[in-house]
Amino acid sequence: AESCTPVLPVLGRDVTVPLVTGGEVTYAALDHAASAPALQRVWDDVAAYAPYYGSVHRGAGYLSQLSTDLFEQSRRAVAEFLGCREDDEVVFTRATTDSLNLLASALPAGTRVFVFETEHHASLLPWRGHDVTYLDAPRSPEQAVATLEEALHAAPAGPKLVCVTGASNVTGEIWPVRELTAAAHRHGARLVLDAAQLAPHRPVDVSELDVDWVAFSGHKLYAPFGAGVLAGRADWLRAAEPYLAGGGASRTVARREDGGVDVEWHTNAARHEAGSPNVIGAYAIASACGALRAAGFERLVAREEELLARLRAGLAEVPEVTVLSLFGDDADRVGVLSFVVEGWNSSHFAAALSAEHGIGVRDGLFCAHPLLRTLLGAESGAAGECGAPDAAAGAVSLNAIRVSFGVGTPDEHVSRFVSAVR
Ligand code: PMP
């Protein structure tokens, strides 16, 4: 009979799952860092719109016009949510991975990229093919800034880009984005913020943080799968070849006398949005942005800190548990926490949480292999695949358990988790 005071209602509150011990229990979704349940409000908005949807930027019919308006309104709502500058572009993508690959495809020739080894693979890998400087894992926010500053100082002249996460998908620790951006700008570099984990938990204001671009995913921000955002400086995006070639990105296409074709591409966001756009995905993201703004991040953060304090206090009472951290106990963190349990293979532990307690967490290396190697000790042997722990690697257990929650999480999920771990 604990209080149950989530900030916003989400789908799936009443879903029950079977237990191996017999009977069933309501599902405790504690894997928000992978994908968060959709907000009820988002689902309602999408359902209300569904009968009216039509093709975007294509049809002449009333419903096509309505959908086009809704798509462009969604773009404006996202720009507002992110505090975009007047000239910024908001491009709808498939998710953060897609957004960062889009930006990677748009870098001016000769751009040198700086990225910490601690990043999610979506932030770590898209830059291959450019000159990339991988930075060692810092052990404090101050060291992160100093490490970046030193690397930029030593870099040759030319365009530079820093890619950094706002909050780690492994430790939940918040990175000093404003300070890193200031360091980047001092050295003539631009910065893209991977806000996949930050945006669902903290306000992300492009103007205030002064970042050049921001990327996030709808499915981690309480909207359904399939849509994400890249927002920020228009110049590199406008100068680049379209991310995908096709209808929607092209303004005019004409045969040349020599038999080839000439293409004039759009110069706005449409340049990188070829093909029929995901209007429902964009509308769902805009709806989620509106709901989070209306609830107020102050309230969201207060609630999250309360749950996180309970979670950490509960885990601290179990001596076999080691919580993974780069920046130490005092770090500012979102509701994402990874740990290992002495004497346990993390995959077995996570499987037991599911089978015996109806709790959904994630185990593995969280698509951040270099970071996990640093946190767990590189000598521990083979790593499981990203997203699918390798059974053969089970014996050496280079993996961890991650618990993560959000605006719809009731107290009971956290207390069930803590007593299950105990
Ligand atoms: N960056 C971070 C920090 C993430 O946590 C994730 C998702 N785990 C991504 C990028 C990639 O997001 P998506 O899978 O939605 O493209």
Automatic annotation (TrEMBL):
InterPro entries in the record: Aminotrans_V_dom, PyrdxlP-dep_Trfase, PyrdxlP-dep_Trfase_major, PyrdxlP-dep_Trfase_small
UniProt keyword annotation of Secreted present: no
Keyword annotations of the record: Aminotransferase, Pyridoxal phosphate, Transferase
Keyword Transferase among UniProt keywords: yes
Known cofactor(s): pyridoxal 5'-phosphate
Signal sequence range: none
Domain of life of the organism encoding this protein: Bacteria
One GO MF term: transaminase activity
Domain Aminotransferase class V residue range list: 30-417
Gene3D superfamilies, sorted: Aspartate Aminotransferase, domain 1 (3.90.1150.10), Type I PLP-dependent aspartate aminotransferase-like (Major domain) (3.40.640.10)
Pfam hit, one: Aminotran_5
Protein name according to UniProt: Aminotransferase class V-fold PLP-dependent enzyme
Organism: Streptomyces albiaxialis
